[in-house]
């Protein structure tokens, strides 16, 4: 009698932007899958044929990144001041919102420099400009001058 668990898709957890390792449930052979393939097939299951000539279904479960996975530095290019003790509230391809424990000497319309480092070393860090759209107490909301890719 055939094992029914082999008929279900093999769920493989993978971090966004990283390659996945699939182990054949029949022979145990490991297969490496590049990030582009992971991204392409992340929403559906697909069939894999191993070198042992057995076929099985795979479904990728791509982990979403948290804003806390990124190392973000915000600085004022006018005086080269780097803001310390910032807490990121929102980070997406167009915006960054943060709070800062130090006294803020910035105003609406001012340009800031934002540096973002990724948790995976193979993705280069991003340096971009952001325009302040709101300052309220220690809260700052900015939009990027160009969209950034956080995937």
Task: Give an account of the 3D structure.
The protein is mostly beta strands and 151 residues long. It folds into two domains: 4-63, no CATH class; 67-144, Thrombin, subunit H, CATH 2.40.10. The protein is 4% helix and 48% strand. It is built from one helix and twelve strands, in the order E-E-E-H-E-E-E-E-E-E-E-E-E. The protein has one helix at residues 35-40, and strands spanning 10-15, 20-23, 30-33, 45-49, 55-63, 71-76, 81-82, 86-91, 95-100, 111-117, 126-136, 139-144. The protein has a seven-stranded antiparallel beta sheet, with no helix packed on it. Strands 1-5-4 form a three-stranded mixed beta sheet, with no helix packed on it. The chain has a two-stranded antiparallel ribbon with strand order 2-3. The longest helix has 6 residues, at 35-40. It starts with 9 loop residues before the first strand and ends in a 7-residue tail after the last strand. The mean pLDDT is 81.
Brief account:
By secondary structure, the protein is mainly β.
Write the layout of secondary structure elements.
Blueprint: E1 10-15, E2 20-23, E3 30-33, H1 35-40, E4 45-49, E5 55-63, E6 71-76, E7 81-82, E8 86-91, E9 95-100, E10 111-117, E11 126-136, E12 139-144
Parallel strand pairs: 1-5
Antiparallel strand pairs: 2-3, 4-5, 6-7, 6-10, 8-9, 9-12, 10-11, 11-12
